[in-house]
Amino acid sequence: MTMNIFRFLGDMAHLASILILLLKINQSRSAAGISFKSQALYLLVFVTRYPDLFYKFYSIYNTVMKAFFLASSGWICYAMQLRFKATWDPKLDTLRIEYLLAPCSILAILLCDKYTPAEILWTFSILLEAVAILPQLFQLTRTGEAETITSHYLFALGAYRGLYLLNWLYRSAVEGHKVEVIAVLAGLVQTGLYCDFFYVYFTKVMKGKKFQLPA
Length: 215
Known about the structure:
Blueprint (H helix, E strand, L loop, with lengths): L4 H24 L7 H14 L10 H24 L14 H14 L5 H15 L2 H10 L1 E2 L1 H26 L7 H13 L1 H9 L7 E2 L3
Antiparallel strand pairs: 1-2
Helix pairs in contact: 1-3, 1-7, 2-3, 2-5, 4-5, 5-8, 7-8
Organism: Chytriomyces confervae
Membrane topology: Multi-pass membrane protein
InterPro entries: ER_ret_rcpt
């Protein structure tokens, strides 16, 4: 994939989201407010999207970014289930992820361009990433509020998907690449899921107030 401003900014927003989450967990030594199910789904997204990391080289930038996302997501899941498990509340993290995994698996087989393992896994990862944030958002609706640093993490993650949606559209309109319909639709779905969050973030957190959903 060639670089453009939307892809670069999207990558930086994605990188920022991971760094913010790592900072939150390490500084507070707590996983409170974070959905382990969402983090496990993101790890699965990276595992199914980046198998080419081990057999195909594109660039140093590409390799470093993929390796970082895989390693950091693995560490976050490890930290939440082993080092700081006592701070994660499973009674709040209750969304049934099989309701996300099953449809994504079926649609990946039905909608992939080619019936090859790599293409099916890529399609699955794109579809799953679109809904991987749902356990976190569902948990947020149950608590009704979030720490400021957690809201920054979610904002950066949402910005990443919005920027990558623009990246796909830019590549099609300016660079003449084939429109990745699955990627565009998944980007629209994921960005749409953040609409309520973005509204609260801009009207409260950006004004120095605590992130709190309307009663």
